[in-house]
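Q: Give me the 3D complex with acetyl coenzyme *A.
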Amino acid sequence: MEAKIISTGSYLPSTRVPNQQLETLMDTNDEWIKSRTGIEARHLSETENTSVLCGKAAIKMLDKANVSALEVDLIIVATMTPDYQTPSTACLVQEYIGARQVMAFDINAACSGFVYALSIAEKMVQSGNFRYALVLGGEVMSKVIDWEDRSTAVLFGDGAGGVLLKGVNEKKSFLAEDIHADGSRGLSLTARHLTTQDPFSKTTDEIQQSDYLKMDGRAIFDFSIRNVPASIRQLAEIGETQLAEVDYYLLHQANYRIVEAIAKKLKLPMSKFKTNMQRYGNTSAASIPILLDEVVSAGELKLGSGQKIVLTGFGGGLTWASILIEL
Ligand code: ACO
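A: Here is the predicted complex, encoded as structure tokens.
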């Protein structure tokens, strides 16, 4: 049994916040944000939490594939901004879409989360035990943003996207993967540190950190442009595919300059790299499936066409993950 992507879907909350609107909240400006990141606007969720964004994206992709929620056998949600620590976002999505009591769980690999989840789901579908698998990436990043910290607040947005996998008796679609983590650099991007709280002790653990997302922007930038091109080269080698043979590279949408630097290092034209951070900012685990859904909806990628794509996530953990797929 092999896993194949048979549908894509995405959902953005309706409130669009252009850079100019952030100028009213903090000392920043449209020109700085655009020139450093490429971002022009983001969508922020007023009332819909992560599970609702994911649920709405899931319903869209099921409708497109004409598959009932009752046929879904597995739900995986990648998120670093769940509604609760428990229940998992995936359990809430299961209820929201009206799926059966099937296996549902979250994974957290920050901006690499969707690619991690896709890798896990592919193996589970391959086992023959799960026919239809929903793989979602969803975030309400605005929950963990310090809206007074201009160095992070301008970068992120909310949204969700995903794919529906089906187990089929066809040739392999997931050609290769290259997936890593480096916990030694984990503290260069953190959010919501939960401290110890022994009721018999007067102290908590030594690491005192903010509830909000904190990051060393330079370190993350350098990590991205060093590790990602090496990972993509490795992926192409494992998948026995020339870099130029890949139709599109859909990278995590953190920053236009990062995508440009990666393209340059790989000696590939920017026309092979799709971007949408201009409109949505960095939506962490949601960025790749939202982009994939847009490119499929635009007709530039066709499911079942044999076109080749590379999906690459990179970010908190630190983590980085690439998958080469023949659609
Ligand atoms: N508006 C105006 N000025 C700002 C803003 C802002 N929003 N933010 C910072 N500045 C100022 C700084 O205070 C600094 O001023 P100073 O020189 O007077 O001290 C100046 O701009 C330059 O700041 P730097 O942080 O050095 O700017 P840099 O060129 O490194 O760009 C950025 C910052 C865009 C965050 C960059 O480091 C980056 O893209 N890093 C990648 C991080 C990232 O994308 N993380 C997302 C999460 S992880 C992931 O998804 C991979």
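A quick observation: The pocket of acetyl coenzyme *A is lined by residues 28, 32-33, 36-37, 111, 150-151, 154-155, 189, 215, 217-218, 220-221, 224, 252, 254-255, 282, 314-315 (CB under 6 Å).
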